[in-house]
Amino acid sequence: MTNPLLFLLAALTLVAIPGPNHLYITTRSIGEGRRAGVASALGVETGTLVHIGAAAAGLSAVVAASATAFGFLRYAGAAYLVYLAYRTLRSRQDLGEQTLRPQPLHRVYLDGALVNVLNPKVVLFFLAFLPQFVDQDAGAVPLQIAVMGLATALIGLVSDLGYALAAGSIGGWLRARPAFQRRRRHLTGLVYLGLGAAAAFAAPSPRHT
C-alpha cells in the first residue's frame, strides 16, 4: 500500500460526505428509533464486507465491466428499495393508524445488508478508490485491497453509527409530535422510493457511495 496516511485521509474525507447509505440509516433511525438505526448501520457495513471480498477476488471488476451484470445489480437494488417503500406505506400499528410498525431488529439488519450488497455504486466506489493506493511492486494486491477495504468499512461504521445515534435523538423528539406521526410513514416511504430511483439510474462510472 502506498502512503497509508494519505489513504486514511482520503477515506475519512470520502466517508464524511453524506451519501445514500447515510440517508437510508438516518431515515430508518428517525422513523423506527435509535436501535433500528444502529441495526441498519451494522447491516450496511456487513454489506460492505461482501463488496470488499468481491473487490479482492476481482469480481467487482467483472460486474462493472459487464453491462448485463451491472444492470441486474442496479435493478435488483432499486427493486428492493421499492419493496421497502411498499412495505412501509402499507404498515400500520392498528387498523386506521398512519404510523409505522417497527420491524424486528434482525429484519432491519438484513434490510441494511441487502440494500448495500445490491448497491452498484459501492462496486464502482471500490473500483475507483482502492486501486489508487495499491502498490503493485509490493505484491499481494488482493490482500492490500482487503486491508484497505476493511479500514474503509471501519471508518464507515463509525460514521454510520454517528448518523444513527444523532438521527435517533432527533427522531425521538419528532415522534412525540402528532403532526409528524401522521406523516412519517409516507415520508419514509418516499425516501425509499427516491433511493430506489437513484439506484435504478446509477451510471456505470465511478462515484462516491
TrEMBL record:
Keywords: Cell membrane, Membrane, Transmembrane, Transmembrane helix
Residues that span the membrane, as ranges: 59-86, 107-129, 141-166, 187-204
Alphabetical list of Pfam families matching this protein: LysE
Keyword Cytoplasm among record annotations: no
Topology class, membrane: Multi-pass membrane protein
Family matches, as InterPro entries: LeuE-type
Compartments where found: Cell membrane
Keyword Metal-binding: no
Protein name from the UniProt record: LysE family translocator
Native source organism of the sequence: Actinomadura monticuli
Source lineage: Bacteria, Bacillati, Actinomycetota, Actinomycetes, Streptosporangiales
